[in-house]
Design brief:
With about 280 residues, the protein is an alpha/beta fold. It is built from ten helices and twelve strands. A hairpin with a 4-residue loop joins strand 5 (about 90) and strand 6. Helix 1 packs across helix 9, helix 5 (about 105-115) packs across helix 6 (about 130-140) and helix 5 (about 105-115) packs across helix 9. It is an enzyme of class 1 (oxidoreductase).
């Protein structure tokens, strides 16, 4: 009997660590699986997802730029996907796809359990209003933060995310050009590609007064893709710096549980990847 088939779909996707992570989880729990990658441009997503199901595919992880479109392809939605409006995990039910989102639970678990962060009562700045921001925002609110300020280059997307969250007492959409007047913050999260092309000596330009020496900073990217943003944070005096590698592993573990009914241990997989993607700016 052949192993069940899973994959991550995105564009581009060759760089994804998801196959490696899920194969490690499978070995840990003695679950045979095949896990590959599907690189497809947005216009091909419906056909490629349908073909994967027709060929026996049981589950998909979804990454950029498909998280919004994947939401529309699902015939059922879990409560988190309903709430955030984007999907990063799809499970085949036999009649259609059931969509989930594990990004937020992955981020919060990484911050609170691995990093020992207490999110309760914290004033948070979320930079970005795309799929990644949609995925993590509800979980941050559930973790007890006191205020969530959202900024994005496109004001309409900022307002749309704030409206979706439906928590006007804590959620505050702001214009990107107003960031200089918003701080300071307890926690700043970059959910954009800002800084991906910046090197260690060329950090992104953002107002330093958003930070105090007690501000923690997270980039949802990992490894070299997070260098530019975290270099800015270090230069501005941030307290602790985290990239998104831990979130990646934790959200994958939550996806694995959805598909297989068991949640793997993550520390060993995380430590192996951290050694490979060692990052001197992060505060591990």
């Amino acid at each position: 009997m052949s192993a069940d088939r899973y994959a991550v779909v995105g564009h581009p996707v060759a760089h994804s660590l998801s196959p490696r992570i899920h194969q490690a989880f499978g070995r840990q729990l003695g679950i045979a699986l095949e896990y590959g990658t599907i690189d497809c441009p947005p216009e091909q997503l419906p056909d490629r997802v349908a073909a994967f199901a027709a060929d026996g595919g049981r589950g998909l992880n979804v990454t950029l730029p498909h998280k919004r479109a994947a939401h529309a392809l699902c015939t059922e939605l879990g409560p988190t996907a309903q709430r955030c409006g984007v999907v990063n995990t799809m499970a085949w039910t036999g009649d259609g796809w059931r969509g989930h989102n594990t990004d937020g639970s992955g981020l919060v678990r990484d911050l609170t359990e691995r990093r020992r962060q207490d999110l309760r009562g914290r004033k948070v700045l979320l930079i970005g209003a795309g799929g990644a921001a949609h995925g993590v925002a509800p979980a941050l609110l559930d973790a007890g933060i006191s205020a969530l300020f959202i900024v994005n280059r496109t004001d309409a997307r900022t307002d749309a995310l704030a409206d979706l969250l439906a928590d006007p007492a804590r959620v505050h959409p702001r214009y990107y050009e107003d960031m200089d007047d918003l701080g300071p913050f307890d926690l700043i999260i970059n959910a954009t590609s800002m800084g991906h092309d910046a090197g260690d000596g060329d950090p992104v330009a953002l107002p330093g007064k958003m930070l105090t020496p007690r501000t923690d900073v997270v980039d949802l990217s990992y490894g070299r893709a997070a260098v530019g943003f975290l270099a800015w944070a270090r230069a501005a005096g941030a307290d602790r710096l985290f990239d998104g590698l831990g979130m990646l592993v934790e959200q994958a573990a939550d996806s694995f549980r959805i598909w297989h009914g068991k949640r793997p241990y993550t520390d060993e997989v995380y430590e192996e990847l951290r050694k490979e993607f060692g990052f001197p700016l992060a505060s591990d």
